[in-house]
């Protein structure tokens, strides 16, 4: 296939409720949508970078610049045998995986549409027709508020609760949650809020039989995580520091984790996500799909990714309404009362776009072409 142009659109979407992690509180999302035009049709991707460089080094402004000036020009007017060709063409751009991943996922969507395939089939998925769902609950103002939110999510059927933690909002808070919900699948996500100096505090979490502690130490560390994992009964799940299949191989070899979270943006798209998945499957390390407060396109891409066979743990792919009063796809992503998303068979990522709404919330738009 040959790509004639990319259209970048920055949209602004207010969240239904603020979302707080160990590093920031977010009230609205600035998301860059990528439309890849070629062969007379369009494929769509989503750049999942946040508004600030807190999760990793990327943010909305940097992603726009990298996509426009560096990534898109390397993909235009080339005869691509497959969307998989995109990853090596952009590989010499150091870092900036989310910017590159937004373009790469748009190409996979375009390729799936050209082949009249659902995206999950195009990437080699299809191990399940229902994706088990968990939810991620940010840091709240009070423990009572947190418990009330957990009650709501359990009532609608979600299979796993992830709560954000940080020093001062960890051991005592989880103890209260466990008192109220002794049997639920519960995990804690630290977003790199701790160091090895906090090992006694992290070891105290062992009493709560958590599914995992996600990325407790530095965002770019593997070695210290190996030391920490050797001293914890609870499984460590790595997120921010796993940016490639090779990183996963290193982490597994060192014993730095027992679980890995895969995010499409973090690893620059589907091709590397599939390779990472295969590395973990071979090593019997389970994976799950993490979320970045995506709008409907990114959410649908995550559903497709989650149909690969080693995604055996409930991920963060939840219903649109948990985050948005109105999503950019129609119908929105919905979760059944059993806590699953039913995988659609429509071509591409599987959901019609609400183009009128996208236009209404677009704050800037630019076309990148070679002409």
In short:
Helices cover 31% and strands 20% of the residues.
How would you describe what is shown here?
The structure is a single chain. This protein has 371 residues and is of the alpha/beta class. The protein has two domains: 5-116 and 355-369, Enolase-like, N-terminal domain (Enolase-like, domain 1); 121-342, Alpha-Beta Barrel (TIM Barrel). Helix content is 31%, strand content 20%. The protein is built from twelve helices and 13 strands. It has helices at residues 60-71, 86-90, 97-114, 119-122, 143-155, 171-180, 199-203, 223-229, 245-254, 270-282, 296-305, 355-361; strands spanning 5-20, 25-38, 41-47, 130-132, 135-137, 161-164, 186-189, 213-214, 236-238, 259-262, 287-289, 340-342, 362-369. The strands form three sheets. A seven-stranded parallel beta sheet has the order 5-6-7-8-9-10-11. Helix 9 (245-254) packs parallel to helix 10 (270-282). The two termini are 18 Å apart. The mean pLDDT is 95.
Summary tags:
single chain, 371 residues, alpha/beta, Enolase-like, domain 1, TIM Barrel, 7-stranded parallel beta sheet, 4-stranded antiparallel beta sheet, 31% helix
SSE blueprint:
Elements: E1 5-20, E2 25-38, E3 41-47, H1 60-71, H2 86-90, H3 97-114, H4 119-122, E4 130-132, E5 135-137, H5 143-155, E6 161-164, H6 171-180, E7 186-189, H7 199-203, E8 213-214, H8 223-229, E9 236-238, H9 245-254, E10 259-262, H10 270-282, E11 287-289, H11 296-305, E12 340-342, H12 355-361, E13 362-369
Helix pairs in contact: 1-3, 9-10
